Structure formats: C-alpha cells, structure tokens
C-alpha cells in the first residue's frame, strides 16, 4: 500500500478521477457531481457509475468538536455566569448547519463525546444534550433558539454581547486553517458568533504553533477531533 500526502482536497480528488489513486473521499467542491439523492438516499451519479467508481458508505468512529479552554478566565471556569456564557456560544455554533454546509449533510450532530460504534455511545432515546437542545417529542431534540442564547448571554453579564464597560465581548479562535478552502469555515464561525453581538478574533498559525498553544493552554476556543484508534473510549 502506498500513501501520499495531498495538502488540499481538490487536487487529491482530481488525481483520483484521473486514475492516480485507487481510493478517495469526496471533495466538498465535487460533491454535487458525484452524489445524487433519490428515494433510497444518497447514491452515485450516472457519471461516476460510467467511470466504474464504487461508493462506500459508513459512519466513522470519529468526532469533531469546538472546545473551550477551561483554564481561561473568560470562557473557562465553573461559576454560573461562565457556564451560561459557554451555553450561549454552544447554541450559536449550529452543528447541523455546519454539517449541511461543509460536509454536504454527511454527519450526525453529537450529543456526547463518544461516537457511534464505540462502547458507551448513547443514542437520542437514552439522552441528549439538554444544554443546547430541547425535547419536542418523538425523540427529536431541537436546537434552542438564538433568543435563548441571548438570554443566557445577558445573564452571564454580556447583554447584547457587551461587557460592563459597554465594549463588545471578544473571543479568540485559534486554528491551523491556513489553506484557502478553509477560509469559508472561519467566516461562517465569525458570523455565527456575531449573531450574539460577540466578536470573534481569528488567530491562524501553522499546525506546530497551534499544538504548542493547546499544550500551553494559550487559547480560548478551538476546533479539533478524535479518530478512534480502537473501539473503546478509554483513550
């Protein structure tokens, strides 16, 4: 087996179509050409079938998340006000919208830290995230409204996203999203937080610097993930 590193998804996908690679995920840009939705859900387009390409579908034992630095004086801590600030921001960062836009609907909004396929995963019938969602019956929790998020934000001491001095609350988001295709994610996140009147300051660096920031707790908000090494949550 030969693995090669492609730093961006579009060149990797194009090389797959040209026969340089035997296997590839579907790029965000090429999704509409590759997948068609019918009565049986998502399936390959006729164009891909003519190329004798097969489609493999599964739920990965993977989770991606936005994480707060619990050592930070603003977004961390366990006081009622600090908790309400995190709740408000968590409601505003709409994971369903994120999945629809950036993963073409391929994903499940998590209600806990353990993904499907791993022992300990809880489906919606056994519990959902009550801080961000509310139950409307039929085991279909619905994300709380921006109005509810604004109420929590005001109770946290930031009415309309402003502090006691009337200045906009500013949250730092650290990432290693340097490639052009990831800039739209940064803009989306900035807009999502902005609905609360909160400013998001983007601090983008190379991955090594980003890792150092995380290890030294020099961040407020980040996006990261976990791929299961083996089917047990202990690691």
Can you describe this structure?
The structure is a single chain. Helices cover 30% and strands 17% of the residues. It is built from eight helices and eight strands. The chain has helices spanning 9-17, 31-34, 46-50, 80-92, 95-102, 146-155, 183-194, 207-215; strands spanning 35-38, 41-44, 62-68, 133-135, 141-143, 170-175, 199-204, 221-227. The strands form four sheets. The chain has a two-stranded antiparallel ribbon with strand order 1-2. The longest helix has 13 residues, at 80-92. It is globular and about 60 Å long. The model has no long low-confidence stretch (mean pLDDT 89).
Mean pLDDT across the residues is 89
Based on CA inertia axes, which overall geometry fits?
Answer: globular
Computed Rg: 20 Å
Largest sheet data: 2 strands, antiparallel
Low-confidence stretches: none
Helix content: 25-40%
How many angstroms separate the termini? 27 Å
Query: Secondary-structure element order, as H and E?
Result: HHEEHEHHEEHEHEHE
């Amino acid at each position: 087996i030969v693995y090669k590193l492609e730093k961006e998804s579009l060149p990797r996908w194009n090389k797959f179509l040209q026969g340089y690679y035997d296997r590839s995920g579907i790029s965000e840009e090429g999704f509409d050409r590759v997948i068609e939705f019918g009565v049986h859900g998502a399936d390959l387009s006729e164009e891909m079938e003519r190329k004798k390409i097969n489609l493999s579908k599964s739920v990965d034992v993977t989770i991606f998340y936005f994480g707060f630095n619990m050592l930070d004086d603003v977004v961390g801590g366990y006081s009622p006000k600090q908790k309400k600030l995190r709740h408000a921001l968590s409601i505003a960062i709409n994971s369903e919208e994120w999945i629809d836009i950036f993963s073409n609907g391929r994903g499940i909004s998590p209600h806990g830290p353990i993904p499907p396929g791993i022992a300990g995963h809880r489906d919606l019938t056994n519990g959902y995230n009550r801080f961000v969602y509310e139950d409307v019956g039929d085991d279909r929790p619905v994300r709380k409204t921006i109005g509810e998020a604004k109420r929590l934000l005001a109770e946290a001491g930031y009415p309309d996203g402003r502090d006691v001095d009337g200045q906009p609350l500013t949250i730092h988001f650290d990432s290693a999203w340097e490639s052009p295709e990831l800039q739209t994610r940064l803009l989306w996140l900035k807009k999502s937080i902005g609905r609360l009147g909160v400013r998001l300051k983007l601090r983008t660096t190379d991955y090594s610097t980003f890792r150092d920031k995380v290890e030294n707790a020099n961040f407020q908000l980040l996006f990261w993930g976990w791929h299961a090494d083996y089917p047990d949550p202990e690691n």
